[in-house]
Amino acid sequence: MEQKIRRDRCMGDNLRRLRKQSGISQEKLCAELQRRGCDIGRTTYEKYETGELNIRASVIIELRKIYGCSYDEFFLGLDE
After folding, report:
1. Domain that includes residue 64, residue range
2. I need a surface site. Which of 3, 10, 50, 61 has the fewest CB within 10 A?
């Protein structure tokens, strides 16, 4: 019997958009997150952007500080 995987809403596109708007690479972003106490490697962060992993709230909090944006930016378009 074939299993169907239901695709949940993910904020990966928003994470990628915010990072690119800031002009920062995944490597540099992860280094900054690590400096702020979030133990995130580049491959893990890449999975956040592709929707393979759900991002932790603590990482979103630090990303908001880095990007200087509102929390709404992370959830843009997900309620449609």
Report:
1. 12-74
2. 3
How many C-beta atoms surround the C-beta of residue 29 within 10 A?
21
CA distance 15 to 48: 8
* Nearest residue to 48 via CA among 14, 24, 73, 7: 14
pLDDT in tens, the chain (80 residues): 455 444 567 799 999 999 999 999 999 999 999 999 999 999 999 999 998 898 999 999 999 999 999 999 999 888 87
The span from the CA of 42 to the CA of 80, in Å, is 30
Q: pTM, whole model, 2 decimals?
A: 0.85
Give CB contacts under 8 A, 24+ apart, made by 34-38: 36/62, 36/65, 36/66, 37/62, 38/62
Q: Is the distance from CB of 29 to CB of 66 less than 8 angstroms? A: yes
